[in-house]
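Handout, tutorial session.
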Amino acid sequence: MKELKVLALALGIPSLPQSLDVLKNLRTLRLVKFKSGQIHTIGALVKLEILEIDTGYLWELPEEIGLLKNLRLLDLRRVINLRYIPPGVLLGLSKLEELYVTDKFMMKWESKDGDKINASLSELETHHITALEITVPKASILPKDSVFRNLIRFKIFIGHKYAYGSLVDRDSVNVLHLEGEANDIKENGIFALLMWKTEVLNLVEVQNLKKVLYELEDYGFPDLKRSSVDECVEQEFLVDALERVPRSQEIRLSYFRNLREVKIRSCGKLKYFIPLSMARGLRQLHSIFIAGCEEMEGIFNKNEVDDEIEFPELKI
């Protein structure tokens, strides 16, 4: 079996066999429902490009994984009890392009686990990361902007309440979920890099947020399809376009041209969903759900000549 390139091992194996090191040409390894945390022999698979691990028995990622210099994809989403990634392991995966990590690991980035110090996401700064799925407790843990410049697909969760009111499902792509202090989020620079590609935007309990991203005047969400805003109690506008956007009508409308679904809950100071001038561009809108917005005066802010608006796709 020395020429074997793809291998899946499933169920019941107590550990990876030592003889695995003869598979020098293996490119893909999947450990499916693996009932063991003993995978230290994996470091011998020097040509491995894709590694997917599915186990509840692995608490620490073996340092030997850092020897896989040709690894392009590392999927740890189903390593549900992962608690420790040694520093330097991710740095050693110099060809890594795709990284997927379980949400259970969110409190561990750049923190101590007993006497151990966990890996930092800054180890990815030298890599060409095109796909990323991670959860972090606050925006300050994310590394500098350069890590995200090559992203094509992503699910990035800041905070730990994304299950509530979320529009995220198995098929969601390019998800940005934000919690915490608005200024901390904006200062990180993540918006400027990801807004162009974000398709699902969730805002949950974002403090000191009165307007959703005045940076819209420069960037916008051209690919945004679904948005959910929950318990952003200080928010007054989704976009205050009349004040912040001294641009042409066409540019304003392009910000949300693909938006299909909107959910807004418990935003006590919100007065309007969106200015009338921008509402005319929401031709793809399929669903609007608004609840618990006690000071809301209307869905659209009519600060101009009244006009009819048509939503040909609106069903809900």
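The second record follows below. Compare its token runs with those of the first.
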Amino acid sequence: MRIVRETSSRTGPRMKAPSTARERILREAIRLFADRGYDRTSIPEIQAAAGLSRGSGALYKHFPSKEALLAAAVDQFVDTARQGRTELAEMPRPIDHKARQLVEGMLEKLGANRDTLRILWRDLEHFSQLRSKARDEIMARTYLAVAGWLKEGQRRGELRPHDSEAVAAVIVGSVAMFRVFEAIWGERAIDVSDERFAAAWSDLLARGLQP
């Protein structure tokens, strides 16, 4: 067995590095918060789910409190949104390809944060700072980034004149809610795949805004 592992490590695909205790704790906390709710999830339950002794207090070596875990979940989502905005700025033209990439990228990143979407929707009522951070850093800045991309398309003559802020609200809002409803209900309200959704949306966007 040892020889096989050593050979595969040199010639096969690189193995994924094992997650750290901090990563496991945060991952399991997000899962439990999404499944049970923040208030109904205890520190011992998170520790046990992360492979730690329930009563050890080992979680506090990485996070000072349960609220710090909630904040870390929001921060992780914020980082994903920032990455998406960077990718938007670097997307190649033409406009129809970029529209498809825009929608696909949003679906992918929202899907990767499905549990956090449930938490944001349900559990931030009593955490005004985290709620404001999520609203401003994830949604508002994404709206502005898409609006800026649309304005640049107008400036270059690739898109016809239009209300860029309003169109950005339609794009981001519809894609976000497609994922939010799926996260909340655990299933889709209509049997439409991500591929079909992205194709339909990019077709509407490109055809509707091209000169």
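Points raised in discussion: The chain has two domains: 1-63, 70-211.
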